[in-house]
Amino acid sequence: MTKFVRGLALIAGLSLVGFNAVRADEESKKAQKDILEIAADIEAGKDIAAKVAAVKKKYEDLNSLMHAYKPSEKGGIGFGPKAKGDGIEIKLNSLAKRALTKTAIDKEKADLVKTGYINIAIAKITDAYAPTKPKGGKTPKDWKKFTEDMEKASKSLIDAAKAGDSAALKTAATNLNSSCNNCHSDFRDS
Ligand code: HEC
After folding, report:
1. Exposure of 175 by Cβ count < 10 A (0-12 exposed, 13-18 middle, 19+ buried)?
2. Contact call for residues 86 and 79 (beta carbons, < 8 A)
3. I want to staple 64 with a disulfide (CB 3.0 to 4.6 A). Which of 27, 85, 97, 167 is the partner?
């Protein structure tokens, strides 16, 4: 390859990387709108089966949906008012580590409840992405179990936030985190 051709190949390669990054960004932004819509439907007691099926058709990669857990500055949904490090994943970790006082829960109640419904929505969506064949000895049944754990813990988190129950909120966040970590260690590649 001449220097010139190598240069061209490099430029083409770099723009492809850039193009893919922009595309992934747009995908996850769209995915978040869908997640928030499904979360609102769940809160309103509506049936979400059709919307979940549509999401599964629309996004090939589960990553576009999981990206919602990142801080808002990284293109995630974020917890509460926009701020650095406001990611839902970070918030769940801190809720599991240190119990909030009842006063703090009451102050954050609306955001905690909203986050709970977002997590139920993501659990329902993730369920639709269950692998069709086993991976490293883990089966689609294991995947389903993790999404069920995730949903159950999210419901407990909502109840605890509404009740202002510090201990129950910490337990719910701990269980929710375990569902994430258990699935990631079995099914996530990186
Ligand atoms: C049932 C399985 C499962 C559960 C439960 C699960 N995840 Fe994931 N998650 C995955 C997989 C698989 C990937 C990688 C997807 C890919 O690479 O296409 C992933 C990727 C991610 C990513 C990376 C997104 C990005 O943009 O790079 C984040 C963040 C994440 N998950 C957070 C969470 C959090 C937080 C929870 C729990 C509240 C959770 N996940 C629960 C399976 C799961």
Report:
1. middle
2. yes
3. 27
Report whether 38 contacts 121 (CB < 8 A): yes
Q: Find the domain containing 137 and state its range.
A: 29-187
Report the domain count for the chain: 1
- Tell whether 20 is covered by a domain: no
Percent of the chain at pLDDT above 90? 82
Report yes or no: 125 and 59 within 8 Å, Cβ to Cβ. no
Mean pLDDT of 128-144: 94
CA–centroid distance, residue 105 to ligand 1 (Å): 26
The reply to whether ligand 1 has any atom less than 6 angstroms from the CB of 119 is yes
| Residue 177 counted as domain residue | yes
More confident residue, 23 or 57: 57
User: The domain spanning residue 140 has which CATH number?
Assistant: 1.20.120
* 135 CB near ligand 1 (under 6 Å): no
How much of the chain, in percent, has pLDDT values that exceed 70?
95
Q: Compute the distance from residue 185 Cα to the ligand 1 centre, in Å.
A: 10
Task: Please indicate whether residue 126, judged by its CB atom, sits closer than 6 Å to ligand 1.
Answer: yes
Residue 15 placed within a domain: no
